[in-house]
């Protein structure tokens, strides 16, 4: 039996990926919230990044592989991010140097690569994604971002050694299990919803994840995201707070009790993200942070994404996942029109999203 997918909520989930990322882009990886406030105030709309980033460690990142290390390598500059290696050696350089308000970061641009491949084929095929991902990442001037996180660098270090693309995902490292690994999964999950087969959803999302990330720890959270999104689309009127809190509890974070305390004491979300939970990328902290915000603001996508952005840390990737969850629960109308209109790729995104809906809903 083929399931009927509510198109308004599918549309909301797909747009939510991109607005959540773009809103957070100018303050991505700010860990000093006072500096974030000093530089930008409370972000409620798209802004451009500043050239100086007070918490940037881009100059410590390896240009040859994942993680920190020497910048003598040429994976960054010659294989990917062609011509952009000079930005990496400068202290306090913003990770997204020179981008514009409403731009999306590299991981979300790769989500668009995936969506376009799925649209062209009318199905999810990992080989199609790998072909187009390699072409996009190695082409000069295919995008305007200046940063590629660890998994991209490991993938293309292996690719430059001559490994076939299906074997290029890097081995587990300290930051492999990160929230950035989840942002490409919602379109794959959504494409499988019509089959009404949870096992097929899990198989497809793990297949996609393993193309770029080798991490059993991350897989646990990927399956949790799949479970939540499937449940949201199964329910005609989904109750996001109990779903998100229940999932968080099973993952070891007492979201319901924390939210009750915050609301009782009229506390700040920063006491949770930055207090109880790290704002960093690590999945055991970042995914519970997403679930906390989804449950804290189950009827207010705008408030949730503003809170996420202004908490700093890996807010771009948290924001993308959070936007997909809230969009799936609340629908397209929950997204402020100014955020849709303000995306720099709005016209192209609209065509890609509407084609996806026509193919898979």
Quick structural gist:
The chain is mainly alpha-helical and 361 residues long. 55% of the residues lie in helices and 0% in strands.
List the helices and strands and how they pair.
Blueprint: H1 7-24, H2 33-40, H3 75-79, H4 106-121, H5 126-138, H6 150-160, H7 185-193, H8 198-212, H9 216-234, H10 240-250, H11 255-265, H12 283-296, H13 301-310, H14 315-330, H15 337-342, H16 346-360
Helix pairs in contact: 1-14, 1-16, 4-5, 4-16, 7-8, 7-9, 8-9, 9-10, 10-12, 11-12, 12-13, 12-14, 13-14
Describe what you observe in this structure.
There is one protein chain. With 361 residues, the protein is an all-alpha fold. The protein has a single domain, classed as ADP-ribosylation/Crystallin J1 (ADP-ribosylglycohydrolase fold), CATH 1.10.4080.10. The protein has 16 helices and no strands. It has helices at 7-24, 33-40, 75-79, 106-121, 126-138, 150-160, 185-193, 198-212, 216-234, 240-250, 255-265, 283-296, 301-310, 315-330, 337-342, 346-360. The longest helix has 19 residues, at 216-234. The two termini are 14 Å apart. The model has no long low-confidence stretch (mean pLDDT 96).
């Amino acid at each position: 039996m083929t399931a009927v997918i509510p198109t308004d909520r599918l549309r909301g989930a797909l747009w939510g990926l991109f607005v959540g990322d773009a809103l957070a882009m100018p303050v991505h990886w700010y860990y000093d919230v006072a500096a974030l406030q000093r530089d930008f105030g409370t972000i409620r709309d798209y802004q451009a990044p500043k050239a100086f980033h007070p918490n940037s460690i881009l100059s410590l990142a390896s240009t040859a592989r994942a993680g920190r290390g020497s910048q003598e390598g040429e994976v960054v500059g010659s294989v990917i991010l062609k011509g952009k290696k000079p930005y990496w050696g400068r202290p306090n350089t913003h990770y997204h140097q020179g981008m514009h308000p409403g731009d999306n970061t590299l991981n979300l641009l790769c989500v668009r690569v995936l969506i376009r491949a799925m649209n062209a084929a009318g199905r999810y095929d990992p080989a199609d994604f790998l072909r187009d991902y390699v072409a996009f990442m190695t082409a000069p001037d295919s995008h305007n971002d200046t940063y590629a996180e660890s998994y991209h660098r490991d993938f293309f270090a292996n690719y430059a050694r001559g490994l076939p693309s299906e074997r290029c995902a890097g081995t587990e490292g300290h930051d492999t299990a990160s929230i950035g690994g989840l942002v490409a999964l919602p379109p794959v999950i959504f494409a499988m919803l019509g089959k009404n087969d949870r096992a097929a959803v899990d198989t497809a999302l793990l297949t996609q994840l393993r193309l770029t990330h080798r991490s059993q720890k991350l897989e646990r959270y990927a399956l949790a995201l799949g479970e939540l999104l499937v449940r949201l689309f199964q329910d005609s009127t989904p109750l996001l707070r109990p779903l998100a809190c229940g999932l968080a509890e099973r993952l070891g974070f007492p979201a319901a009790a924390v939210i009750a305390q915050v609301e009782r004491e009229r506390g700040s979300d920063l006491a949770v993200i930055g207090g109880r939970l790290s704002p960093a990328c690590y999945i055991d902290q970042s995914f519970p942070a997403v679930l906390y915000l989804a449950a804290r603001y189950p009827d207010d996508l705008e408030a949730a994404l503003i809170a996420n952005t202004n908490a700093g840390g890996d807010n771009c990737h948290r924001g993308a996942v959070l936007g997909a969850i809230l969009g799936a629960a609340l629908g397209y109308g929950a997204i402020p029109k100014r955020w849709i209109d303000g995306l720099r790729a709005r016209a192209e995104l609209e065509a890609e999203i509407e084609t996806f809906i026509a193919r898979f809903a």
